[in-house]
From TrEMBL:
A GO molecular-function descriptor: transcription cis-regulatory region binding
Record keywords, A-Z: DNA-binding, Transcription, Transcription regulation
Name of the protein this chain belongs to: AcrR family transcriptional regulator
Gene3D superfamilies per the UniProt record, alphabetical: Tetracycline Repressor, domain 2
Known DNA-binding region: 35-54
Region named Disordered: 202-228
Native source organism of the sequence: Nocardiopsis sinuspersici
InterPro entries: DNA-bd_HTH_TetR-type_CS, Homeodomain-like_sf, HTH-type_TetR-like_transc_reg, HTH_TetR
Biased composition regions of type Pro residues, renumbered to the chain: 217-228
Pfam families (UniProt xref): TetR_N
Nucleus found in the keyword field: no
Superkingdom of origin: Bacteria
Keyword DNA-binding listed: yes
Amino acid sequence: MSSTPPTPHEDLTGRARIRDAALEVFAQRGVRGATVQAIAAAAGVSTGLIRHHFGSKEGLREACDAYAIGALLEQARRGMEEDAAAPGFAASMYQAGGASVRYLARALVEGSRAASDLFDAGADLTERFLAERWPDRYPAGARSTRDAAAVMSAMHLGTLVLHTHMSRRMGADPLAPEHVPRIGTAMVGIYTSMADFLTGEQGGRLAESLPADGTAPTPPPPRENSDE
């Protein structure tokens, strides 16, 4: 006797099915726009089961935060342990799962706790990478090292926030698993090209024009008007 093929989430526990549905609904509508009713419909459960497992929409959101961050940061930490290149940090996170990635893309826009934790953890990993690879240029704990790590993290996580614009320009969804490698390839190409540019004459002048410590020059004092 044949059985009906399982629908998505059917082989998961009720709690996991609700969580995965919530990841998708939160990603599509944002936390404010998502309703418990919409999540229940997507998961194929009652709103009462959601309240039983999570208490409220906020409790469900916290569960999604914990799951999404845990999955993606595990990928990032594994990459660091395997001596993966820091520019691949964001690409390695994409591999953790499409629903988690899209959820965090929305969280970064909305400024949730998940977004703060993800950014800080990514910056910490990047800071460690820079200090270990180039200790003379990026001393551990130095302001310049923290600045570089924060900027690099913003550059990489920006591909999550701006993925709809990237889709328009690339002609494909960059968060789809089959297109994720294109992000890593582009990043490596950009880093390589910029390294070549900065060692050239024009790039050298640009680098020399910036203060070594990143501090803006002190503006001259205002001129006093004198009565003639």
